[in-house]
TrEMBL record:
The lineage of its organism: Bacteria, Bacillati, Actinomycetota, Actinomycetes, Micrococcales. It comes from Gryllotalpicola reticulitermitis. The keyword Endoplasmic reticulum does not apply. SUPFAM superfamilies: NagB/RpiA/CoA transferase-like. Keywords: Carbohydrate metabolism, Hydrolase. Signal peptide: none annotated. This is 6-phosphogluconolactonase.
């Protein structure tokens, strides 16, 4: 895994967006289309804003997915990840196709989304790492590196739900839904290129565990070390707990 450490969030977002754009342009040039999965979180804001400004991408040739969604959340709620991405990205560019993961969370919804996801290979996955090391909503208690499913319903652990409050998405822990639909670890790892954007001091311990701790579901993000083409983008704060970087914090 390539690790890039940038001075701040703005630099991190710009660097990641430039690399994602290069991958999209190359994929579209090679086969005429690209399929991309996007994470929805404040940690992705700088990268997505910079990606919108990237030139030379034929967005009409891009099919987009988002990687997780709350269950039992009102479909119009701004905290919904599909709604967040609609505002931050999908409404700003002429995507060829956008697949939204619904909020009612039944098996039929998960299976239909998995079918659309599996119709062709995924070229690019833009993701982050949670404070508990989660990828998408694969928290430590439910993460499975060999999950037979592509999409499943999960129970969110308390640390994951508290992160949504700390990120300013919900006013209180009791407001955060307890259930979600998520792409599984194998679904994410199937992407040809992974671009993992992780800014902020709150993520420093999770980054350390992902890079320097045991490889296992206690830190789901550690599985990224198995991927042949994953780039991790950190700022000085999120890298501050790594060996050799502590002096920068």
């Amino acid at each position: 895994m390539e690790v890039r450490i940038l001075p701040d969030r703005a630099g991190l977002g710009a660097a990641a967006a430039a690399d994602v754009a290069d991958a999209l342009r190359a994929t579209i040039a090679q086969r005429g289309a690209a399929r991309v999965v996007f994470a929805a979180a404040p940690s992705q804001s700088e990268m997505l804003a910079a990606l919108v400004r990237q030139p030379g991408i034929d967005w009409a040739a891009v099919t987009a997915f988002h990687m997780d969604e709350y269950v039992d959340l009102d479909a119009s709620a701004p905290q919904g990840f599909g709604n967040w991405l609609h505002t931050a990205l999908f409404d700003l560019l002429p995507f060829g196709e956008v697949h939204y993961l619904g909020t009612h969370g039944d098996a039929q919804t998960a299976d239909a989304y998995a079918t659309a996801l599996a119709a062709q290979p995924i070229d690019v996955v833009c993701l982050g790492i949670g404070v508990n090391g989660h990828l998408a909503f694969n928290d430590p208690p439910v993460a499975d590196f060999d999950d037979p499913k592509l999409v499943k319903e999960v129970e969110l652990d308390t640390e994951c739900r508290q992160q949504q409050v700390d990120d300013g998405c919900f006013a209180a822990l009791g407001d955060v839904p307890r259930r979600a639909l998520t792409l599984t670890v194998p679904a994410l790892m199937a992407g040809a290129r992974l671009f993992c954007v992780v800014p902020g001091r709150a993520k420093a311990a999770a980054v350390r565990d992902a890079l320097e701790g045991p490889l296992g579901t206690a830190c789901p993000a550690s599985v990224l070390r198995r991927h042949d083409a994953c780039t991790l983008y950190l700022d000085r704060e999120s890298a501050s707990a790594l060996e050799g970087q502590k002096a920068l914090s």
